Structure formats: C-alpha cells, structure tokens
Fold this protein.
Amino acid sequence: MPIWRVNGGDSMILTTQVLAPNGDPATSANSRLNFVLRQTRFCPDPPFWVAGWDTGVTAVTGTQPGVVKITIPDDISDSLRRGSYHFSMAVSDRFGKNTYTALEGYLLVEYMPSSPQHDIPYRSDDD
C-alpha cells in the first residue's frame, strides 16, 4: 500500500487515474467520487477531510482521460499531528451505485522547520 510523505502545513496533492464502474475514464458526468481521510481505517471518529468532484477533486486536463488531482488544503494538513493517516477513494456511477475502491494509502505527516505548527498535542481518550 502506498505511503505518501507530506509536510504539515503544506497543501497535499495526490494524482491518480480513475475509471468509472463501467470502465470508462471517470468524469463528473459519469461518476461520483468520495475521498476520505481518517486517523485509521477503523476509526469511529468523523473523518478529518472528505472530498468529491469539484470539492477537492478535479480532472487534470491535457493528460490521459480519467486523471484526477486530489488537493488536501494546507489548513487540513496544518491541523494534523505528526504521524500516519489512512485515506481511500470510492468511485460510484452517477447514481451512487456500483461502487468500488479506486485508491487507498497512507499519508505520513512530518513537521519541517518552515511548517507553521510544531506542537499539536496528542489526542486523549476524552477527546
């Protein structure tokens, strides 16, 4: 499973090729995308960030059909403490049926000397 190393406070950009469930290149007209970033795969807490077409996920023009760019904003990465986070993206047809997982991986967030945040406290069981 891929691990993407990213810096806290930076915009995180993931690029991948996605097919609609019928095998055609994914577009906003023929598919729904649901990208979710969580602490872990089984974490019951709400996700840190959720995205879809035109809300964090955009088609990349000038490349092969179906290539998308997922842009996790810098304010989201700034709120994450140093460590690993799990993400996945489900693709459905335009009616929200015939869903499959097109992308799965981990983000490894590190602090850099230029990062805006260096001391995000660890969460406790009370949080």
